[in-house]
Amino acid sequence: MQFIHSLKKHFSKEQLMIILTALSLSTPFYICVPFLLLETLYLLYTKKIINAFKSTPKSKYLIIFMILTLVISLIYRNWIGVGCVVLIFIFISLMLYYRKYINEEVFELILDMLIALSILWAIYGLYEQVQILNRLGYDHFTLKVFSRRENRLNSVFFNANYYAMMIEFIIMMIGYKIFGTKELKKQVYYFITACINFFLLYMTGCRTAFIATAVAMLVFLIINKNYWICSLIGMACIVIGIFFIIHPEQFPRIEKLIDNFTVRTKIWHAAIEGIKAHPLFGQGPMTYMMIFKQYAGHNTQHAHSIYLDPILSFGVIGVTTLIPYILDNCKRLFKVYKQKINLRYVALVISCIVVILLHGTLDYTIFWVHTGMLFLMIASSFEMFKHN
Fold it and tell me: Can you give the pTM of this predicted structure?
């Protein structure tokens, strides 16, 4: 109770709200989504979200995007898409509210909180792994990553690939924190936490995440001008890559590599045909679920590509409506870099974008409650430097 009282005394009501938003990302979607919905309704009632929209540059383009997406979803009777539009409204509203009230102290607290909570994610993930091993008749200490979705640990994130992307973001956040302190104890703590998350990343069996994480780490170090450490990690990545080439059986789910890629190409073919049929406006979020049978695609939720699914779902015009808002954010981030206000933050945002772009070549994991909201919060935090 004393801790809660000190938080209330130290932070404003609005800042406590965004801390709770970040905290909710450590709960399963059936807890997280209702919480975010109730939070959004409360902020609508108090008109704080309306004020956030009014005060945020280029936010009208986000409104246009949501209205257009809702209309298209209704026209094609894409009821799952309509539900997704509601979620998109929640995420965008909370993102703009977050932008309005974030400051450096709250941002640092949120990162530290999520990094610490990632240890609990890992503990629960290992508990899941023990249950999986027990169910399949293996010894509890067997180090094995299984191929079937139901036999891969996901902690509280519904799917192993979603958990993998959350770990990727956490590792980038640890990079941000470890280069921001000179205290040896904190550096050791961050390093150990990173090692725990790397091990759990391996246990998720998400192969694309390994490459995405490695490249994103190098990008972070280059932007943050840690060239010597970048060289060491680059050499370590090469050694690990050589190890997996010599011992391919140690690479997670290697036996399914060809089969999984064949499935991906089948999904992408169906998605491309869907884009050809509705190139301008798409048919709303989760269009792939509506069209895969028509084009003999694989039965799954989305197009497993960040380069295909947005165009398939929102169309060229739908995606284009977001460009003015995105460009405005890029200009603001570039100002932070140009004025050298906080290079670590710029490196954090760019490395997270690299994660999305590389992981997104084979999956669409950013289009989920936890991963999407976390990235929006990180990428919108440049407002904490507005006093500069």
Answer: 0.92
